[in-house]
Amino acid sequence: MYIFATRILQLLLSSMNGHMNVVNKDKLPQNEPFIVVCTHKSWIDVVCLGIALYPTPIHFMAKKELFNKVFIKKLLKKLNAFPVDRGNPGPSVLKIPLQLLKKKQVVGIFPSGTRNSEEKALKNGAIHIASRASVPIIPAVYIGPHTIRDLLGRKKRFIIFGDTIHVPKMTKDKEAVTEATNEVISKVFEELKGNI
After folding, report:
1. InterPro entries per the record (predicted)?
2. N or C: which end of the chain has fewer CB within 10 A?
3. Tally of structural domains, the chain
4. How far, CA to CA in Å, does 133 sit from each of 87, 97, 136, 161?
5. Domain extent for 8
6. Cβ–Cβ under 8 Å, residues 39 and 109
């Protein structure tokens, strides 16, 4: 279902908006699990990230409210999404992504939440998961249209990948490691946005 949906959406967006530019795809780790953290404003950037990583499937972390309706819940699960309480992320948030990474899968986290505290919590979650699983974080930014109208306006789409970020194992200075990595991710996001 995931591969089929990705191909269909790729064809649909290409017909509406033309070819998407994927920059620095060679920076992605080969044949090993990783976490990709990407900027996020609408469903379009989620789809574009999936297309950019194709044929590698991504398992997306999505807010639990999206899973309230049975049909949507089934669809999201088939599209490799799993729920998380973004407003109150607890220890259980780590369980599913750690299991996926252990199976050498790729986990996608979109830390640009609706509130600053939510954004920081999601970034922190990605950092803690990467540290626990001993996998790298790949930063990515989406630049382009966020509405159907903008897509039809042929505004160009870009997914830009940044350099690998390695998170050390957490010790007594967990807070310092988390804060420093958080700053690195934020800085990289801004630098990548300036590439276009």
Report:
1. AGP_acyltrans, Plipid/glycerol_acylTrfase
2. N
3. 1
4. 23, 9, 9, 21
5. 2-193
6. no
